[in-house]
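One such given next:
>
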Amino acid sequence: MLTFRPINQVSMAQKCLTKKQFWIQMAMVAFWELYSVWWVVNGIMQKRTAYWIMGAVLGLLYLVFAGYLIYQRRRYPLNDEELDKQVGENLKSGMTGVGITFGIITVGFLIAFGLAALLK
């Protein structure tokens, strides 16, 4: 059975951000902001209204998210060297995994297209 709690009983615990977590998330925000600018410019150049509107909405949403990250870092700072070290290691291992996956996919496509060219 679905039950609802009154709004005053909902717990909104604030998560603290370390400096490294903050900058990793801000890098993601910067990427999506550049992507939204590309959508806006591409939509205007191709005269596609839906593209530039979606790009503007995406850019606005990520600007709000960036503002929230700045607020969260200033209001609830966390200086934990051990957690920063773990975050750096997680980022490094994650990027290594993405690189390996991308490399395997690229080699697969090269083999597939090479075989297709040879058997043509």
Summary: Helices lie at 19-45, 49-75, 81-118. Residues 62 and 68 are 10 Å apart (CA to CA). DSSP finds three helices and no strands in the chain.
